[in-house]
Write a structure and sequence with these properties.
Blueprint: H1 3-53, H2 58-64, H3 76-84, H4 87-118, H5 124-136, H6 143-152, H7 159-182, H8 187-195, H9 200-211, H10 213-228, H11 232-237, H12 246-252, H13 261-281, H14 283-295
Helix pairs in contact: 3-13, 4-7, 4-10, 4-12, 5-7, 7-10, 8-9, 10-14, 12-13
Length: about 300
């Protein structure tokens, strides 16, 4: 009979502590989701403004402002952007630059990462540090020297010069990322393939590359987005309007004194479609590659 009050006294604080923990968890969950919603809205707001503006007329934007509610709806802005900006040829130019650049960069960086990660290469760390240091240099410092080099090589104002520059500046970062991923692949797999009579090329193509496919897919999606949306090198190395990629073509729609923001917004939406499609197609591989890289 004397034990019951003591037991009840002990249970009461436990219930209070559990209730407090439950309230803290609920408050933390509500705060987390509220913060996430606010950040998402802040990130999506400019995209929504551009999308809505692309369907508004010039008079509506001029009279009411860009951030105002739309009073008109038209598709003529996309027709004007397509015709005035030469978006078809610009999209073709962007694909001519982006697709070969992504393929060449990934092939060279995968081969370099394979050699550096699977074999004892002299000065391996020095090579990796040099590759990584090259990506830390401000691009603005190299605009004029690179432009001069392309002029001396007689490739200035060509898409080939843009491809060469994009490959040169991207291969160091891609090699560094793939090197860290390939190091996590067990050496027993390579030794087993060697015992089966497989050579270096066969091991690279049939053993290492299939295992590194998530990382390569993630880098492919990222590099496509970076190269396709690049503007700085495009306006530095290209002068002919027929050779400009999509980003430079969108920039050319801006007038010196008056700009039709609805037409520019429509061209921006068109320019964002290829990158969006690539991300949606490679979304699973992209997220899987990031997750595998973070876990390993």
């Amino acid at each position: 009979m004397t034990i019951a009050p003591a037991t009840t006294a002990r249970v009461a604080p436990l219930k209070l502590s559990s209730r407090r923990r439950g309230r803290r968890r609920i408050a933390a969950t509500v705060g987390f989701h509220t913060t996430g919603i606010i950040i998402s809205l802040a990130w999506f707001a400019p995209i929504l403004v551009v999308l809505v503006t692309s369907f508004r007329t010039f008079d509506d934007v001029t009279a009411n402002g860009i951030a105002s509610l739309p009073h008109t709806f038209t598709l003529q802005t996309y027709v004007q952007a397509w015709n005035q900006g030469g978006l078809f040829q610009a999209l073709v130019n962007s694909m001519i630059v982006t697709i070969p650049t992504v393929i060449i960069s990934l092939v060279l960086s995968a081969a370099a990462a394979f050699g550096l990660s699977r074999y004892r290469v002299p000065f391996r760390r020095t090579i990796l540090l040099i590759m990584l240091a090259g990506n830390l240099l401000p691009v603005q410092m190299l605009l004029i020297p690179i432009a001069r080099i392309t002029q001396q090589a007689n490739i200035f104002d060509t898409l080939g010069a843009l491809i060469a520059v994009q490959v040169a500046f991207g291969i160091g970062f891609y090699t560094f990322v793939l090197y860290g991923f390939m190091r996590t692949i067990p050496t027993e797999l390579q030794e087993a393939a060697t015992l089966d009579g497989a050579g270096t090329v066969r091991i690279f193509l049939q053993v290492i590359l299939p295992l590194a496919r998530p990382a390569i897919a993630a880098l492919g999606a990222l590099s496509f987005t970076w190269i396709f949306n690049d503007l700085l090198w495009s306006i530095t190395l290209l002068q002919t309007s027929e050779k400009l990629p999509i980003t430079a073509a969108v920039l050319s729609l801006q007038g010196q004194y008056v700009s039709s923001w609805s037409v520019i917004a429509a061209a921006t939406v068109v320019a964002a479609i290829p990158s969006t499609i690539v991300f949606l197609v490679f979304q699973r591989s992209f997220i899987g590659g990031l997750a595998l890289g973070s876990v390993k």
